[in-house]
Protein 1
Amino acid sequence: MMEPMQPHESMLTETEKALARAVLIHGPISRTALTSRLNLSAPSLTRLAKPFLDHGLMVQLEDKSGSVGRPAQPLDVAPGLASFAGAKLTGDAVHVVATDVRAGLLATGTRPLTGTEPASVAADLVAAVRALGVSRIAGVGVSLGGTVRDGRVEFAPFLGWHDVAFAELVEAGLGVPTVLENDLVALAEAERWFGLGRDIPGFVVLTIGAGIGYALVVNGEVVRSPDAGVGLGGHIPLSATGPVCQEGHRGCAQAMLTSGSIASQVSAALQRAVTYEEVLELAAVGDPAARTVVDSAADALGRFVALAANLTLQPAVVLAGDGIGLMSVADDRVRAALAANRDPRATKVELYVDESSFTAWARGAAAVAIQYAFDRIRFDRPGTGLLTP
Ligand SMILES: [Zn+2]
């Protein structure tokens, strides 16, 4: 592919973006692997990589392969390049993380919201990020359940928001670029770039916890839809004999799998209030009431995973979310239910479990900030994106 030879006048070209992403996601990566992955000639790669190396965004590592012939000269992102912050908003708290440039965790924190007015939520978020004590934050990502567009929250039911220009409030408070994204899209982006889906072109992300979430990656891209924040996976029927959800569906995904429903079923059986975490502990030691509910949830989850793979024709599923502890007491049962609901002639579904629980959400938001920063690199304007003047 030919690239224009004039100096960089504006944003990165698509090929430059692809190079930056490949080194970020797969680095350290040999030049041979890069030319093959990006379909470039070796001289083109040398020319494309030069400004990244000159500006200190990438480094060329010592060749440790010890092989004779052409050295691999692997490329990587510069160490300590920048830090990012991610924030996940719920109806009553903001969960924040600081990460390195590969979404690796540096610090985490949680702060209760003092109210749900956008200005006060922004102030809580800014305070939570500052309290992380991480310097050189180059960008902030904010994620929440609901629909977002161009830095505005169109609808966020947990906060009661309609059409709130939220990114600019955070940007004003922290003084760094802020990007807003639906929480499931952000989580899927994190899995695609930095997580369990890194080398898988297509997969489903299913989250369990306070709610049920669903996102889809096809051909290496997250499927984006205005319906991403509606929660369309929440009421899929999974059991003919399960409890009833608030909307009256027997055995739907919400009734079978949300932490609230699981805790209240076991509380009713034991005639005392137990939390979701206590249910998992009770199930682990064989309490019959907890075990019954957890096993039914596991059967439903396995069926859900199989349904998702069967209908999307994608061969892998990443399970995540704040209720992921279910897998620690029901992994075998989930996998058995998955197999039972999958045609044996079909590709075996690869099931990956992201155990980072609630942190996964805020890390997803940070991943979106990292993507945004990489797409905004401008060699002609140091001081934008990741480039310091
Ligand atoms: Zn339902």
Note: Residues 235, 245, 247, 249, 252, 254-255 surround zinc ion (CB under 6 Å).
Protein 2
Amino acid sequence: MSFLHESHPANALIIGASQGIGLGFVQKLIQDDRIGKIYTTYRQPETATELISIANAYPHKLTCLVMDITEESQIEKCIQKIGADIKKLHLVVNCVGILHDSSLQPEKSLRQINSENLLRYFQINSIAAVLLAKHLLPLFKHPENSIFACISAKVGSIGDNRLGGWYGYRASKAGLNMFMKTTAIEYKRRTPKTIVVTLHPGTTDTRLSQPFQKNVPVEKLFSVEHTVNQLMDVMENLKDNDTGEFFSWDGSKLPW
Ligand SMILES: NC(=O)c1ccc[n+]([C@@H]2O[C@H](COP(=O)([O-])OP(=O)(O)OC[C@H]3O[C@@H](n4cnc5c(N)ncnc54)[C@H](OP(=O)(O)O)[C@@H]3O)[C@@H](O)[C@H]2O)c1
């Protein structure tokens, strides 16, 4: 099954589109004639200049909305605006995530555990996604195929955790995976044409991976364009019974 058809253009929403993988999705979808309208969200104009300039070049296709994913009221407002405009979505990709910033570094050891930092990881990387699932449901309730994907990370796999470290990031991505698995079960009842998945993009050359790239072999560090092409391939090949699964960039299923 595919959510993309030549006959009727699909509507897409890319959340966290200011930079990195989210911006890469916008750059790809803007060139795809099977996509009608693209809605995107960003949190602050300072890091969204490229996104805003694409929106200025394609005003009929691309709409940018402000959304800080830690504020449920902003999530609700954005989705209401989209609903008032187009009523149905076919592709939603949540690309928001945090690993580090000026006041947050992934923990190397238990000594560095701090509850405030853990809360930030969970609020951005896991809780936001289930709030999106809550508010997006009405826009998926239509008879056409659709996909709700969240970008997760292989380090969130409990079964695959051999190295340890990065407590907050790992646990928040494991939490994201559980939220999406549980969402998939409820969506199956309430919006059966929607496939819900989490996706591991592979190590991708973005702000998020930048401080950790030096030990990554060149062939394992993907460009944003490469990652987006692979994840689009994975999504276009999803089958109904793939809902609730966790996929890697090559289409293989990852262990929980
Ligand atoms: N890059 C990799 O190697 C890699 C590997 C595995 C998984 N991932 C996952 O892939 C996804 C995309 O990451 P990326 O590599 O593209 O990172 P990135 O370039 O740092 O982009 C992260 C995005 O999240 C947004 N964001 C952060 N906090 C937010 C908040 N409170 N509200 C709204 N938006 C917020 C950022 O917006 P601002 O511009 O406003 O900060 C930005 O658009 C993340 O979920 C990440 O965990 C990445």
Note: The radius of gyration is 17 Å.
